Sequence to fold (295 residues):
Amino acid sequence: MVYNIFKGLGIALVTPFKQDGSVDYDAILRLVDYQLENGADFFCILATTGETPTLTQEEKSKIKNLIVDRVQARVPILMGCGGNNTAAVIDELKNGDFKGVDGVLSVCPYYNKPSQEGLYQHFKAIAAATELPVVLYNVPGRTGVNLKAETTVRLARDCKNIVAIKEASGNLEQVDEIIKNKPKDFDVISGDDALTFPMISCGAVGVISVIGNALPKEFSKMIRLQMKGEYDPARKIHHRFTDLFSLLFVDGNPAGVKAMLHEMGFIENVLRLPLVPTRISTLQRMSEIMKELKI
Fold:
């Protein structure tokens, strides 16, 4: 049996860029160090928040190796490996460089909108192509298709190395159904910062977090309190950040968190097209809230 090691606060790591649009590798190292020092339990690299579709293969390889060398196995590393061409994903899993990587995050196929049986066969083939633990990623708002609870549970039962799902459907009823019916050794991970508190209350084991890029200490504290059953103080932390959660995503991800990290002095506020920086009005409101929270 393969067990899920991706628990607690996972950081959906951004990719910082310089003003000229090139990758800021020094800034990546600053962020990794900051997050390790402030409660990160694992990293999720080269996924949505990292603007991976706009990175070259050379950039992706350098980013992965840089992070692996910096982390030095102190925490697990989950790496994005998914797409809407099953054969291409399998080829990457069989021939790509996964040295130092502890698992892969694989998103539901986007654009071509497969049926539930198509989703099942896609992920079953992916799981068979690797010995690494596989974390499913359900985000219907981006992919146009929802991986239903019964399909998730079916995959969890049939594929020994499918160990968890990053659930970002926003549907707490669906999350609860997965947790109720899943095998004992399969886990649910929140894919939505704003829903992390209720999802952990239902039985999720952590989050792959966007806001954790900027506020790992505060967010990891909330998760640790919940895991110990201390819900009242955890709820207070959750409510402190409610307004910030919505502002982070109002202009798209990772525009919000990149603006926040820029305000904190970590990175330049630069994204690659087709993404653009958050609006001035959103940035001003975020700055006001951060001052109120003494961040």
About this structure: Strands lie at 8-12, 42-45, 77-80, 103-107, 134-138, 162-167, 187-190, 206-209.
